[in-house]
Amino acid sequence: MASSQLAGSSTPSTTTTTTSTTVAAEIVGSTVAGIKETMKTLITTPTARTTTTTSMATPSTTTISSVSSTAAISSSLANDPTKQSVADLSSSLQHFGIVDYCVFVLMLIICAAIGFYFGFIEKKQKKKGQKGGATEQRRGSEALDYLVGGRKMKVFPVSLSLVASFVSGISLLGTSTEIYVYGTQYAFILITLALSGVISWYVFLPVFCNLQLTSTYEYFEMRFGKSIRYFCSILFTVGMILYLPVAIYVPALTFNQVSGIDIHTITPVVCVVCTFYTCVGGLKAVIWTDAIQSVVMYGTILIICIKGTLDLGGLGAVLQRNWEGGRLKIPDMTWDPTVRLSMTSVIIGGTLHKIQSSDVNQMSLQRFLSLPDMGKVKQCMFLFTTLLVFLLFCCCYMGLLSYASFYDCDPLVTKLASADDQMPTILVMRILGVIPGLPGIFVAGVFSAALSSLSTGLNSLACVISEDLIKPVLKNPLTEWQTGFMLRFIVAFFGLSCIALVFVVEKMGTVLTLATMTGAVTMGPLLGFYICGICMPWVNGKSTLIGGVVSFLTLGWICFHAQLGQMQGLVRHPKLPVSVEGCTYDYDNSTLWERQNYTPSERNIYHLSFMWYTGFGGIICCVVANLACLLCGTNKLEDINPDLISPVLHRFLPTRQVEVISAEMEPLKKEKSKDEVITVKKSLDVVE
């Protein structure tokens, strides 16, 4: 789930995506606070002089130039009849016209057309050109074609699809907000993308590519047994069901802010289009629509960055204002895990999180396994990592643009932005609002990220539910027609269910909290299962299950109290200084007073950095699993199939046993291939 996810609130929490991820889901709580307010834009010219500064170093220290003069000036602003109100500015500066609607609708039409092509035209052409050979029939079987594209996909579109799946609409909006509120500490996450890519390249991906699985949770049954396979499959399914409506709701809120169209008018349209092309086209349609949507995202971000920089007077002016405002920061040099962003949490915790969220989860591996061989997988990993680093770098730069644009009149203090995550929308309407079509491109870019997360999640749900929860309990194999119907029914059911779940998301904030917590507590144990299975051949299934349960319960306890503390205002992190010197409009000074009196809370275990959630859960799982081996015993290395262990560890396995097991596996693989051909032939006979 993707998802994998970026922080935009004042406290750590996690994501749904892409694609349900831990970091992206943190911004959801602050988004809910602003769902009843429309987008507000900003006019800034220096007049009134009112400043407020919050100190990072000393939590209890608040520096204010003059509290009494601030209150007086703010009061005069509120009573000045010549000043426009926030609501008036909001309604007068919404520039979403016919051209913008056309751009947005065009994107939806293209996505639907791609699904129609792969679901009907390409499939019909394939049937006509098929010779009827057993091998061709097996490779073109329904499940293989629908879930992994027949393992014949190309590197470039798969790489773009991975980027689109990882960067959800939530993270696209939240990254720049994170930089605006807390500075460039989070930008060091770009280093971890490269580190996680290298580790996955050598340690994890060779195992799954060699096994050629459809669902990654099949590996857990091969390595540990059915209990862990079911446990992980259920965790993934529940987390994804909770994440998908959130992933589509946040971009719908953005659309509502810039156009005024009701959320429940746009979400059914988008959900139906996404469900259609995912249902009829399978993974091929998902990958190619993701590729188109990625191009839209890159185009949107580049237009904003280039035009915004030119409007502000160049790169030097942008960096100068951020330097003076204290935004250019490096992570704190400390081992304290409760510090929001330290160098250790970003580098170590971030690397572990990225391995799980973007490299070895079901959604990512399903795309890697759609490629024909390991060489293509490595090319895809390199290209995916490069493209992802570039996109997130641009998102971080958007945060610097936001501060450089509003350095003397903070929209959060004046309530021009009712929630942190509305900052990108305000920036875009300031930079692009006067040019017809560009706001439409921005909304299309945000929805592109959301559509990719939704389509990826639906396709992965179909894979996990069918392969891990339904097929293992069936006595007889399904025919090709039955398999195709089952997969499409799962996609259609959960896709259309998102329409109803969006109502629940809007009305009940507890659902958002539950989605956040589920993403946090599932990714850690899953990472631990992967590490124990691939890197610790002596650990058996019982020990691993104990470690996973302990990890799940521990993270659940921490996340529950962290979310509760966030809702009650007990978990507060230090924020960087802001200013309202240049505001020329009427604003509510009560918000200014709240910001002046804002102080960080005393840190405890519930302040655990959101970057540590996945890594902390994985470490707990591995440590407890190894300790449990003292009670449950260990595996004999001679009995372990080396195909289930990372190639970097093969040198430590008994040499003779590696050769014997590999030789024994060959006839089993051939027999499995024969069985697949026979099954397909029987299915074809039934259909005929």
Automatic annotation (TrEMBL):
Residues spanning the membrane: 98-121, 155-174, 186-209, 230-251, 263-283, 295-319, 381-406, 426-451, 485-505, 511-532, 544-564, 610-632
Keyword vocabulary terms for this entry: Cell membrane, Ion transport, Membrane, Sodium, Sodium transport, Transmembrane, Transmembrane helix, Transport
Family: Belongs to the sodium:solute symporter (SSF) (TC 2.A.21) family.
CDD domains xrefs: SLC5sbd_NIS-SMVT
Record-level GO cellular component terms: plasma membrane
One of the GO BP terms on file: sodium ion transport
UniProt membrane topology term: Multi-pass membrane protein
Keyword check for S-adenosyl-L-methionine: no
Protein name: Sodium:solute symporter family protein
Compartments where located: Cell membrane
GO molecular function: symporter activity
